Structure formats: C-alpha cells, structure tokens
Amino acid sequence: MSNAFAAGRRAIGYCDRCGFQYLLTELRSEVINLEDTDIKACPECWDRDNPQTQLGRHHFGDPQALRNPRPTGGTAGRGTVIHFDDFPGMTNIPGTTVPVASRLSDQLLTTTPPNSGVSFSSGSAYVAVVSLPPEHEDASPSPPNVIGGVTAGGLLSYGTPISITFFVQSAPSTKGTTDFVSIRGDFAATEEGATATMEAFDISGQSLGSITVPDSNLGLTLSLSVAGIHSILLTQDSASPGADGTIGLDNLRFNGIVSSS
Predict the structure, then answer these.
(1) What's the rounded Cα separation, in Å, for the pair 171 and 57?
(2) Closest CA to 139 of 82, 90, 93, 186
(3) Burial of residue 131, with CB atoms counted within 10 A of its CB: 0-12 exposed, 13-18 middle, 19 or more buried
(4) Model pLDDT for residues 131-165, shown as the tens digit of each residue
(5) Among 66, 183, 214, 224, whose CB has the most other CB atoms within 10 angstroms?
(6) What angle (nearest 5°) sits at the alpha carbon of residue 122, between those of residues 116 and 128?
(7) CB–CB of 243/235 below 8 Å?
(8) What percentage of residues in the chain have a pLDDT greater than 90?
(9) Are 159 and 247 in contact (CB under 8 A)?
C-alpha cells in the first residue's frame, strides 16, 4: 500500500482563519513557539512565529561596562568637579562691586560636605561668582554661573589673575597636591586674539609648567597633568593693550588631593 499523496497543484482549500477559498498550495501552516500547528492560513491571514514566545531558548550577554575606560579628560573624570552653581551669582558687569554673597574664597574648606579641598583668591582674598543673564545663560559650560577675578578694590575684573590652592579634603588645614587640574572657559569669545593661561606650582612655589590657549566660542579648556600640583594661577591676555579680560571660567576639575608631607 502506497503512502504517497497527490500533487494537488489544482486542488482548492479553505483558510482556517477567514474561510475564503484558495489553492491548497497557497495555504501555509501556522507555527507557534517553534511548533507546527494544524492551522492552515492564507497569505493574508498567516502570521510568522512570534520571537517573543522563544525567550529563554537562546542565551546571550548584553554587557554595558567597558574594560579600563578613558573618559573625556582622561583620569580627570574620576576626581572632583566644581560647577559654582551652588553659590549666589552677581551681575555680569565688570567694574561692579562684588557683593558678599558672591565672594568665593574658603567656603569649600570645611570638615563637612561639600568639602572639595580648594580655596580661591584673586586681587582680593576671593573670586567673584557671576550669574550670566538668561539671554547668555547657554554661554556657560554648566549654566548659569562662572567665576571671574576681583581687583584689590573688590570690583569684578575678568583680567585679574585667579589663584586656586589645594588642601587635603579630610583635613582642610593640611596643604595638599593633585596630579591633574582643568578648567573651562565660556562659549562667548567676544574678543578675537584673547588668550588664557594656566600655570601650576608645587608646595614650595616652584613652577611645574604652564599652558596657554586662545579663547574660543566652543569654550577653551586649560589643563595640566603633572604630579605635585599645590596651586594654579589663571591669567588672561587681551588682544587690546590695556583692556580687561573677558573670559568667564567654569567646571573646575581635579584628581584626588593627597597630603604634601
């Protein structure tokens, strides 16, 4: 007895879903979870096997962590970042007296958080925290605040040098050093040819090196990577002789601070 079936090239059949007539060869078997069913469907009604029903059949990994990554700024990304936005900002008008609330000096040298282990000074014993106006807020790397220098008379002056000194975070009276420092400039390069400079010093005041970069609408970056940095000096040079600086500074980054002793 033969088990063969007729070819059925002209045979008709009815879709198990819609009931319409088709050639039997046009009807396809439905497959659910990789199992063939007894349902025959027409091309319009037929659905392929849903891969969601096969969850758990295939094992694969989807790792997210990178081995030994290098973020922007190298190892600097593992340290501290100060955005200056936790302090009240003053008006962005050079020559204005810096109000007491906007004077940043040793507020971050505390034994309780936020203790970043840094102090600031300029022509006066503090720098100015400046809040950029709403129409220029996007000019700050991390809106809305930047810092600027202060004259001996207590007036906002971007061209007056800024000094930043490091102390051990767990013992703020102990001088400390780091091996990386960087700071950003604002995104409003209003004077072509202006430059900014960062110079680093060790615990005895000896220069460890410096970097000078031109101002940029993309926001300049000053950074130095060298062991033993106890302090940095930030200066600006205007393209116009005798003119004050114009660059607001933001996003101070530095690696961990260790005791200098």
Answers:
(1) 57
(2) 186
(3) buried
(4) 988 776 678 888 899 999 999 999 999 999 999 99
(5) 183
(6) 70
(7) no
(8) 51
(9) no
Tokens matching residue 1: 């007895």
Rounded CA gap, 24 and 44, in Å?
Answer: 14
SS3 137: helix
Reported confidence tier of residue 74, pLDDT bands at 50, 70, 90: very low
- Amino acid (1-letter code) at residue 84: F
C-alpha torsion angle, residues 139, 141, 179, 210 (rounded to 10): -20
Q: Between these two residues, 260 and 256, which has the higher pLDDT value?
A: 256
| Per-residue confidence (pLDDT) for residue 73, from 0 to 100 | 45
Question: Rounded to an integer, what distance in angstroms lies between the CA atom of residue 258 and that of residue 199?
Answer: 20
Domain boundaries, the chain: 12-53, 77-259
Q: Which two tokens stand for residue 7?
A: 């070819």
**pLDDT > 70? residue 260:** yes
Radius of gyration of the chain (CA): 34
Residue partners of 7: CB distance under 8 A and separation at least 6:
none
Residue range 77-259 in CATH 3.40.50 = no
